[in-house]
Specification:
Helix content: 10-25%
Strand content: 25-35%
Protein name: Hikeshi-like domain-containing protein
InterPro entries: Hikeshi-like_C (IPR048364), Hikeshi-like_N (IPR008493), OPI10 (IPR031318)
Number of strands: 11
Order of helices and strands: EEEEEEEEEHEEHH
Structural class: alpha+beta
Family: Belongs to the OPI10 family.
Distance between the termini: 34 Å
Strand order of the largest sheet: 3-4-9-6-7
Shape: elongated
Number of helices: 3
Largest sheet: 5 strands, antiparallel
Organism: Stylosanthes scabra
Pfam family, one: Hikeshi-like_C
Length: 190
Amino acid sequence: MFGVVFPNRSFPIDISTFAQIDTFHWVLDMNTFVGEAYDQIREVCIFLLNGFTLPPDKALAVYVQSPGSPFVFCGAVTLARPSAVLSLPWPEPGGGAQLQLTAPDAQPLSAKIGVSVEDAAALPSLDVAGEQRIERVALKVGENLFNFMQSFCGVDGSKLVVPMDILDRWFKKFQERAKRDPEYLKGFAL
């Protein structure tokens, strides 16, 4: 059905390495591979195997779980997107509600990667890492604007006062810097 690879860390691993919870859920216990160093595994490549037919409206969703924490959605693959390299945002170990990929009364003693067949339309976004990169870029650009504005601000009571053309001046400076230094914009994407 599917396989996974931990880039630079493993050979391809097929579904037989995962514990099958039920017809649509599988769990990989990270103790098998790295024990307590699970959080050093930053990405996984998941892929559908040749010849496997997943219904067009379904997806294989990937989740991660730190000991004692809920499962966190990482991304998914579909027939239209049969493989993906997904970032693994390991949650902080601790309590919380859990997606039921384990027995309801079981507290996880190790980190796990869960794979689940789900309705594609019900999943947040198949490209979680891409959305996180866009969010980081937006935050860095906003921080750049704020820092620029702050250097021209005056204070009127509890309000900051800025020149009316501050956005135009900032954007012009931003564009000029990007033209002079092609690496400048790459710094926002890190």
